[in-house]
What does this fold into?
Amino acid sequence: MHILYIQQILNFPEASGNCRTYEMAKGFVQAGHQVTLLTSSATFPSESFEEIPQSFPCIIQREGINLLVIAGSYSHFMGFFKRIIAFLLFWIRAQKAGKSVSGVDRVLAYTPPLTVGFLGLRLARFHKAPLALEVADVWPDVPIGMNIIRNPILAHILRRFAKHLYHKAELLLPYSEGMKAQLLSYRLPPENIQVLHNGANLSEWPYSSPSLRTGERIRLVYAGTLGQANEVKQLIDAAALLDSWDLPPYQLIIIGEGNREAFVKEYAQLSNVPQVIFYPWMKRVQLRSWFASAHIGVISFAPYPVLEANGATKFFDYLANGLPVVLNYQGWQAEYLRTYNCGLSSPQGDLEAFCRNIKQLMKSPSIRNEMSQNARSLVKAKFDRKLLFSNTIRCLEELGGPKFIQEGKSEIGK
It folds into this structure.
């Protein structure tokens, strides 16, 4: 089976960020399939390749994957309209490149942005191949739910575009149960939706128990984007409140970057929280030592209900490292933490409840150690990327077969 896999912004394992797409493509190859991965040069890390191409588009073969790379730029620091331009330019340029690929049996497109989904739809029609959408965030629900898109007419138009795309795809692969619920609001057949979590690579994160050494400070770690959706300012407020309580010595390590980075650092300085330490975003291999020395993983999202459906990479990475997780929101992740006893959660916007949960774990090494073991076990049982890859391959292999297509609708999952 030849899979045309499309993701505009690709991360490599040796760089920073979520490298799930690359790992997925590598897993497809190891399973005996041919993979052409269509992407842009936006995150093309020069240290990853012995020979750097002088021009784009180009084809690079790496670990059995055919990387079809076209020129393109993108950054989290871009403004809204610059991002839109970057998305449209990729959509335009990638069409020709995608049509040049021969013998395509399946098209798998990563969204957001929705432009990649529509690109996948066009290329699937061109190659007469089924389309599967990997849904890492349900758009435009997220920007609408965060009041980024406030015009009701524009919101209605965008939802109609999204509904058209979601209905045209034979298979939707959302990253969480929360996203599946959002997709079902578009009146999609439930059998066309298969939840495949973001997950974690257990071989990437060797397990070590976060037992507290005598005299050592408790380390809380946040590793991720410093953007509008995350509102890391809430962690600074939490540190200020924790300082007013009788607690063991601790540090809050914030690792990341984003378009709210300068604001958050200035806010921390004004809030006088010296136990909060910032580090720039780093390669994933460098995160290992930080996670190995941490005791609690914290996740912050802005208080918008739509964000409770998120499938943030840090959630799975924390669990894989045996870190008890503390969330400042509810939703599907909170359900897993409760069911498997590997973390705590609080309602959105309830700073004191969030801090009480942190306090509980800070003052109880026995609870932390129990949750640490449970966290690792949860990843092995539910979120191991090897398991997720095999399930994705099964879904793609079944697409298009007479057993699974009736009257143009996928029967996967029945």
The longest strand covers residues 34-40. The radius of gyration is 22 Å. The first helix runs from residue 20 to 30.
